[in-house]
Specification:
64% of the residues lie in helices and 0% in strands. Helix 5 packs antiparallel against helix 6 (111-127). The radius of gyration is 20 Å and the shape is globular. By secondary structure, it is mainly alpha-helical.
C-alpha cells in the first residue's frame, strides 16, 4: 500500500509521453464540430453499413451509381432523419468526400467503382469519429 502513490506517479508521468490521439480531419469532421458522441457514432455506423452493403452487393442489385445514390438518400431519410438540418454543411461535406472518391455520374457499377464507393463511405465514417 505504501508504494501506491509512487506507482500512480510513474503511470501519470509515463502517460504524458504518449502521443495525443489524432483527430479526424476533412469536410465531414469540420461539419461535425460540436456534434454529440452519439450522433457521430450513429453516422459512422450508417456509413460503415453502406460500405458493407455496397461491397456485398458488388453491382448485382445496385447496378448503377444512380441506384446507389438513391439507396444512400433513402438510408439517410430512414436512419438519420433526426439529424436532418442539425449540422450545417454536413450534406455538402459528405458530397465532397463522395465526389473526391468516385464520379457521381449515373454509370454502371464496376468492381473498381464499388470499391471507390465503399472507400468513400469509410472515409465519411472515419471523419465522423
Amino acid at each position: 500500500m505504501k508504494h501506491l502513490p509512487v506507482i500512480v506517479a510513474v503511470l501519470v508521468a509515463a502517460l504524458t509521453f504518449l502521443p495525443p490521439s489524432k483527430k479526424a480531419e476533412g469536410p465531414v469532421a469540420t461539419a461535425l464540430i460540436g456534434a454529440s458522441r452519439s450522433d457521430r457514432s450513429h453516422l459512422k455506423g450508417i456509413y460503415l453499413s453502406l460500405a458493407d452493403v455496397t461491397e456485398k452487393d458488388n453491382g448485382t442489385l445496385i447496378s448503377t451509381v444512380g441506384m446507389w445514390r438513391q439507396l444512400h438518400s433513402n438510408t439517410l431519410k430512414l436512419a438519420a432523419a433526426d439529424m436532418r438540418g442539425k449540422y450545417a454543411g454536413l450534406d455538402v461535406a459528405v458530397e465532397k468526400v463522395m465526389a473526391d472518391k468516385f464520379p457521381l455520374d449515373d454509370v454502371p457499377l464496376s468492381t473498381s467503382l464499388v470499391n471507390q464507393i465503399a472507400a468513400a463511405c469509410r472515409e465519411v465514417a472515419k471523419q465522423s469519429e
